[in-house]
Amino acid sequence: MRGQKTIFTCSNCGICADSAHCVSGANLRLPCKAITTKTATHKHHWVQGKLNVKGQCEVCEKECGKEHTDWWCCWCHLCVHHACQPNMAEVCDIGKFKNYTVPPNCIQLSSSKIKRGFLAAKVLEPNVGHWSPVLILGNKKSGSQESNALLTSFRKILNPAQVVELTEIPPEEALEWCRLVPNHVTCRVVAAGGDGTVCWVMNAIHKMKFERVPEVAILPVGTGNDLSSALGFGWKLRRNFKAAKYLDQLDKATPAKLDRWQIQYFPPRHLLVHASEVDLHMNNYVSMGIDALVSLKFHRARESPSYIFNNRHFNKLMYFMYAVKTAIMQNCKNI
């Protein structure tokens, strides 16, 4: 659970508490949105309380969600009155997000365990037409840490296991989900971050050599977002961003191929010692000169242990300062 002033809200199921003591009690009494289950069918996960948006009872079709006694499912997001709930079917079809979601009853666990949680052995295909699960990979170091709120919004829609923070789990480990689905299923990966995060994810996909390469989309929450802009995803995130709307747009998008280059770099000899060659992968979005040098300087500054700022406006100011300094000193002269 994440705290905001005196209110604590679960980023998965939306349960709220007003103190740390109540959080402990809620964790003991109220089951959270399950990542995996052993049941044959997927059932509704009902949460009681008010909704932030207007809803309509699925049974009586009257206004719903305004009373503390009303119920809503944190998977399909249907709303019912307390008196109408017994008339609802137990089976949940995930609702409008079923094409993107891995239901918890379709995840088979391995007997092995890992420190970060569970280890999946297989992902079964649900009885859904045109099923193409979405994996959200976010980097909270990008930009002004907007990816934290983004990941929360996606956890409320998808299976929480499909939403990964890259500072906790590397992309190679997160992308193993794409191996677990059947071979004929295409996974879609959303890279939420800046240009560095997107290239990080693409390089991981290349190294893993998938039989069916996942499709990659971008959420521009970095500082520059040049690559995102060049590929048509925009140079920044809109203020009124809605995760549900983004998934709908993703479902209607047309895939396009991206040209990527493999480069072998042979470092110069030092004191008669040959350094090993370096294999690099880069997109055909290539830049040489001042802008490339400014991006490199900013990247090195942000990776420094002394870098403590995570504000987008400050980052853009740093970009500007590096650009002016590089242009005046003519570091790229006669390149």
Per CATH, what is the topology of the largest domain?
Rossmann fold
Helix residue percentage: 25-40%
Over the alpha carbons, how many angstroms does the gyration radius reach? 23 Å
CATH class of the largest domain: Alpha Beta
Kindly estimate the percentage of residues that lie in beta strands according to DSSP.
15-25%
The coarse silhouette is elongated
Strand order of the largest sheet: 12-11-13-14
Q: What's the N-to-C terminus distance?
A: 52 Å
Q: How many domains comprise the coordinates? A: 4
CATH architectural group of the largest domain? 3-Layer(aba) Sandwich
User: What is the average of the pLDDT values?
Assistant: 82
> Uncertain runs with pLDDT below 50, 5 residues or more?
none
Largest sheet: 4 strands, parallel
What is the helix tally? 9
Order of helices and strands: EEEHEEEEEEEEHEHHEHEHHEEHH
> For the record, what is the CATH homologous superfamily label of the largest domain?
Probable inorganic polyphosphate/atp-NAD kinase, domain 1
| Computed structural class | alpha+beta
How is this structure best described in words?
Helix content is 26%, strand content 20%. It is of the alpha+beta class. The chain folds into 4 domains: 1-32; 37-93, 2-Layer Sandwich (Wheat Germ Agglutinin (Isolectin 2), domain 1), CATH 3.30.60.20; 104-252, Probable inorganic polyphosphate/atp-NAD kinase, domain 1 (Rossmann fold), CATH 3.40.50.10330; 287-329, no CATH class. A hairpin with a 6-residue loop joins strand 5 (55-56) and strand 6. Helix 8 (290-303) crosses helix 9. The chain starts with a strand and ends in a 6-residue tail after the last helix.
